[in-house]
Amino acid sequence: MAKYKTILVISDTHFPYQHPDTLEFLRRLKASYKPDKVVHIGDEIDGHAISFYPTDPDLLGASDELQLAIDRLKCLYKLFPNVDLVESNHGSLVYRKGKVMGLPRNYFKSYNEILEAPKGWKWHFDLTLEMSDGNQVYFTHGKTAAAGKLSQSMGMCTVQGHYHERFEVIYWANPNGLYWDMRVGCLVDDKSLAFNYNNTNLKRPIVGTGVIINGQPKLVPMILDRNGRWIKRLV
């Protein structure tokens, strides 16, 4: 297993309803940290129009939403031609809908075909990598909101997305070593109608992502101004 010195984690993007400064923010992080591995934590697209929940009639239909998501993803493909992604509840919506309708998965295109993604983009149910300090780190979209529980259950360091308002690192230790559980927030546009369901929640999404350097986690928030745009000098 290869050992990775710097792992950039791309948090939930929900294309085409991503934060408008997402690509520039990630471009800055790539230049600053020069990652030798990039992991997308899931929800690469939103799929609002094919959701199991009521959809907003003022948003795009399924075909237009998918095409716009692909158009915006193509910029990410150029920036990061090689990415490992973990499967997620939004990213897998087309397969989940097919399952409800009784359609076998082999009736559908692959993720790469649907999203016109390059061969370097690879989807996994979950993913375990070895860091440069010799410890392993487990990536999954979201299995528990309880702080530290996933890491303790897995007996290794862990990274999750899914919980947009969670942006934290929890450390714990046992006689074998020091471990951590990182939640990386999201990269969504909280003003989009696609996230109106969250308006009744007291906690708001935290826009940002994470990076792992020599086995240690680092959260990188996207600091926003009063208009909700990235303050570029702060990264």
Tell me briefly what this model is.
This protein is 20% helix and 26% strand.
Mean pLDDT over the full residue set: 95
The number of helical runs is: 5
Low-confidence stretches: none
Helix coverage percent of residues?
Answer: 10-25%
Q: Based on helices, strands and strand pairing, what is the structural class?
A: alpha/beta
State the end-to-end distance.
31 Å
| Largest sheet report | 6 strands, mixed
Backbone shape: globular
Strand order of the largest sheet: 1-6-7-8-10-9
SSE run: EEHEHEHHEEEHEEEEE
Q: Could you tell me the number of beta strands?
A: 12
Give an overview of the whole structure.
This protein has 235 residues and is α/β, with parallel strands linked by helices. The protein has a domain at 3-125 and 132-137 and 187-221. The chain contains 5 helices and 12 strands. The strands form 2 sheets. A 6-stranded mixed sheet has the order 1-6-7-8-10-9. Strand 2 (6-10), helix 1 (22-33) and strand 3 form a beta-alpha-beta unit. It starts with a strand and ends in a 14-residue tail after the last strand. The model has no long low-confidence stretch (mean pLDDT 95).
